[in-house]
Amino acid sequence: MAELKEKIVKLADPMQSSIDQSTQEMIRRAQQLGVETVFDRAVTMKPCAIGMQGICCKNCSMGPCRLPLPKDGIQGEDTRKGLCGATANTICARNFIRMIAGGAAAHSDHGRNVAITFLAAAKGEVNDYKVKDPVKLFQIAPYYGVATTVEVDGVVKDRDIREVAIAVGEVAVAEWGKTTGHLHMIKRAPQPLQDKWAEQGVIPRNVDREIVEIMHRTHMGVDQDYKNLIKQGTRACLADGWGGSMIGTDLQDVMFGTPTPLQAECDLGVMKEDHVNLIVHGHEPLLSEMIVAAAQSQELIDYAKTKGAKGIQLSGICCTANEVLQRHGVPPAGTFLQQELAIITGACDAMVVDVQCIMQNLANVAKCFHTKLITTHPIARMEQPNVLHIEFDEHHAMEDAIRIVKIAIDNFEKRGAEVMIPRHKSSQVAGFGVESIKYHLGGSFRGDYFTLNDNIINGRIRGIAGVVGCNNARTKHNEEHITIMKELIKNDVIVLTTGCSAIAAGMHGLCTPESAAVHCGPGLREVCETVGIPPVLHLGSCVDNSRILLAATEVVKAGGLGNDICDLPAAGSAPEWMSEKAISIGHYFVTSGVYTVFGYHLPLEGAPVFKDYLYKDMEKMYGGMWDCEPDPVKHAWKMINHIDKKRKELGIDKARDRVLMDMADRQALGME
Fold this sequence. Notes:
- This protein is an alpha/beta fold.
- The chain folds into 3 domains: 93-194 and 236-256, Up-down Bundle (Substrate Binding Domain Of Dnak, Chain:A, Domain 2), CATH 1.20.1270.30; 268-414, Rossmann fold, CATH 3.40.50.2030; 434-656, Rossmann fold (3-Layer(aba) Sandwich), CATH 3.40.50.2030.
- 48% of the residues lie in helices and 11% in strands.
- It is built from 28 helices and 18 strands.
- Helix 20 (479-490) links the parallel strand 13 and strand 14.
- The longest helix is centred in the N-terminal third of the chain and has 35 residues, at 88-122.
- It is globular and about 70 Å long.
């Protein structure tokens, strides 16, 4: 640890690094112990100015070619070129869609692994996974082109669950590489949106082809038209949002259970000094689902007690945290930027990681403590010798999970004397989705999105916002997320959230029904108090952004707010985005008709023409558009102003009188 301390020239200011008290405390502790964290590295390492503008090309070995903007801006024709003659717009577009390819590949590979395991489970080839939600299986089957009924001797009956599951699994797996047709999930979008995609020629053919084609087009000397490049980026991102991610969410719900609202705690304070602390971190729930079951088994709890622990405390980081939260109530320990800090508590007996958003520095931090760092995925290993690799195999899923939990238990006795767990934690309600929102709005008897639409039309709810995405060490941890959400709900905009943004909302008390009385405008507060929901609805992990797409589609179907997603008084936001996945997500929301604002920056400033194409021309083609605003209050008001613009276009910008309806009025609504 002393060696690490000597290397740190500048240290992060904890108060300037995060608005979260537990994070501030652990940054101070890390600095006292001489343990370097991402917050310190953000001070000592500055980002590349040319790369931030999106105009550095390293796609061949004649480069990297850097095309900085002239100090006095572009005067007249833009003559900047790389060695091959590639213009700034071409370079910027190539870089942008390569980020889409990376993000789409990550989320869609997640979906692929789920689909393969689902099919194996349906065929009985694995024993630890079952169909837990047959109702959802039968609901989604028609979208996969799978019949749910069969006629026997003139009588129509439901097909056998196993038959339907196998058929759905086979169609799902084929979505990554089929040679003909288009993705099945596209038909879930509103018809006007499907028509736009068809007109623009961007309906995805299969998931893998669209990602591979980006890599081909951006190879040196292939596609050099920024409009044509972003067209392929659109195909790939739609293959992510309406394909790989949506399939992953669907099949996880069928295998593990569709989430329903539940209460849990969050933040680093959920760790317990007298328990074995096991943290799952990453994005794919195939292993973590088994770890939950293993950690709750009486046999392993009793084993933990033989080692001096009172029990096993399981918690999560990043989107694996959201997966096990929304189905089991397992508390999140923190967001992306808190992963090192969970180990620095000295109480983390094991951290189990799979894929995406895993910092390599975890191995360096773990060396300073007793923590066992365990990698589990064949495509995500670490070179450090202190990292244990246990390759997860779905055919022996529970066996692998039990082995991992036992390693954590055995490590409990090796803790050092210096354990410091922050006491800060919050309560939250999570586990919302299309189905549960429908239930809250009308119950099992008449669940429908009509109630939501009616309250948007009458002005109690001003509009809908999706606030999603990562943390970024270049911004103040959680500040942009929380400031934007508070500004939105204060102005009667209901918020749907996923990923680290959702964990941040839970940490800062915005995911409880009680928060409506404190933070909401009068209209949204009235709705939340009547229905019993928080003003910020936690919809799950980042792959579950497909839930937001489907919720928006349900609003369109309920009527009264236009015929397409772009007609809705709605906007999207990624305040502290960091990963390539965020670019893919942002672009599939834009091309699904959503005005989408990113915080921090977008790597477009070096190519003004391409930037204008994304910020202006996209709206003409798809109804949605990109925007960027680092100031969180201005960011929120860009969204609110867009929502107000849509309300005016719909003719609902003036408050509507509240009328006591009699039975004849209700019957006239057509609600049977």
